[in-house]
Amino acid sequence: MDWSRAKSVLIIAFLVLNIVLGYQLWTELPERTDASIDWTSLPPETQLNMTNKGIRLDAEIPTETPAMRDLTYRFEETPGSRANEPVTLDPQPDTRIVFSTEELQEALSGVIPDLDQYRFDNFGGNEKMFVFNRTVDGWPIFDVKLELYYKNQKITSYRLVPIDILPSDEAKPAQKVLPATKAVANLIDRNYLPAGAVIKEIQLGYHGQILDSETQVSAPSWRVLLEDGEVFYVLAISGEAVTDQEDNGEQGEARG
Amino acid sequence: MMERAKSLLLFLLVAASLVQSYFLAYNMPNMEAKEKTELDYVAADPLGPEEQVENLLFPEELVVHMGGNKHTVFYPNDNFYNLVLDKLSMREFKGFQQDTIAAVDWDEVRQNDLGIEVRFGRAVPFELLQKVFKIDSNFLFSADSISRIWIFARQDREEVRTFFFSADGRNVYEALRADLTVQDVQQCVGFGQYWIPFSYWNGGVYVPDEEKSVDSLEVSFSQYTPDQMQRNLFNDPGTTQMIQDREDGTRIYTDTKRALKIEQEPGWLSYTDPVAPTDSQNDLSDNIASAVQFVNEHGGWNGRHRLVQSETEAGGNVIRFQQYFKDLPILSSGSFRFGYMQLAIQQGTVASYERSMIVLDEMRSRVTAKTSLPGGEVLRTRLLQAAGGDVVEAIYPAYMPTPGEDVMRLKPVWAIRLLNGEVRMIG
């Protein structure tokens, strides 16, 4: 047999195969890269709804869709106990250190337990305090906060309810979360966002109802923050929209 | 030379295709099948009987004005209550006309004219009232809510006038074409002659002049199990997780979104589903309908219930149902919660649901004593004490429950509702 001709045929065949595979990979590329995307990547009907209701997106839409599972953790003190009053710091470090991980570690890691596990929450704070979220595998738990109170550019005290992460149920496999575009489209198309809303941040993390117990359960969720401070969570597995539990909690406690 | 280059090229192409295949196979998000949640999709089995909205809208009390400043009150446990109510619900009310509340001198009507005043004790939307009374649909006012209906006959003229009072206390709607006759009113008022006299008191309520006798009861009860409620409220119990880390035996079931808290001792459950509010109208009638539907599916109605004003919030989001036993409301106090269901609704979706898991067995109740509730001056003094300076909006007999080993003891008491919705018992 003519080995040389056979090789030529094979080369052509593999070349075609490579082109096909390459094309496939290339079309999927945008979904994989971590480059953020803007509102033009939302479905056209969502964009139409946004225009009609005057909803603006002032945030980047994250593109990651990692596989995550529910998270169980335990507060070392019951959240309602209020025994956890802010602890006064001495010496009181400058407020600017919150923006630098190293400086923060250096100044406070001896005082605040597990400080390296906490991440600064850009929008969680107010004019009195900075808020950090506890992270698990790099994802923040939005309900577990470290609060640093400040005054005159000095951090005066902190408040923290330490938690233990409990082993997760191995029987339930981790699932790939919904893309952020879907979560946001959900909020807009199903009429959750009020007219004129401005989205200022979209972030993936864990969120759950705060239960009246030490043990808490959190599910992977997209947190969507609005300019006016309203918070929406979209469960990143089921796509259900959930509100911050505080309003509902009050109603739940209503009794005679 | 040429042959070697071709071999090398072929080798590279084979390797490249392998690498690309690998990336495609292990990174393709669409190819990963969505993990099906564990099976056992259990259809919720109904736990208690179903109920319809119209059966939950009966009036709190019927005030009968007998002329000459004489009055009496029929509560739902009185014989005449049903006779009068049946009569009214058969009549038609048509041709509504709006007016301000000051258009009629109500003091004059109360003192001199024969009349029946239907008091609901909360705002009932016109739309729902149509299910109970034959009301001609009137688009103009149908968005309003009604708290009272007053039907009276002028002594001097052969004329019956019917007024519906708007819940905000500003307007009245007169039914210009109602087929009630003077004889109807006279007959209803006639029932009042046989009843305990009540006096108008402190600008709003009617207080009995004599003692009123009500039976004390002992009732057997059963209880839903936490397991039943869990299966009923989570359509896929396989995905829920149970947490029990408190010493009092409180259990919490959660599927990470919804949570069901069961307090073992008093048998009380609170279910919360933090639904996000949508940007649409929150309609009271729709919310009430969804609440009724939700209870139908999750726990059912054990015994008679009435839609009442929630104590905490005047808005349309919190819907509360008062349980009645032998036609008297059951009012619990202190740490023992019993006798009501409360739901918070967001645009027709249930955000929270609280109720007792105790089911009273109406067939197995026993009269233990006849208790006479005070009347006259004694009651008035106690009323003032209990109200502590606040305006009393209603006074009615009620049962105060005390749980025993396997029976619930129900003791009759007077209860008052203050203007802010708070209910207090006069022990």
Automatic annotation (TrEMBL), chain A:
Any Pfam family matching the protein: YycI
Protein name: Two-component system regulatory protein YycI
Cellular component, GO, one term: membrane
Domain of life: Bacteria
Domain Regulatory protein YycH-like as annotated: residue spans: 50-234
Gene3D superfamilies recorded: YycH protein, domain 3-like
TrEMBL record, chain B:
CDD domains named among the record's database cross-references: YycH_N (cd15787)
Domain of life: Bacteria
Ranges in a coiled coil: none
Regulatory protein YycH domain residues: 3-418
InterPro entries: YycH, YycH/YycI_2
Cited Pfam families: YycH
The protein's name in its UniProt record: Regulatory protein YycH domain-containing protein
Provenance organism: Cohnella lubricantis
Organism classification: Bacteria, Bacillati, Bacillota, Bacilli, Bacillales
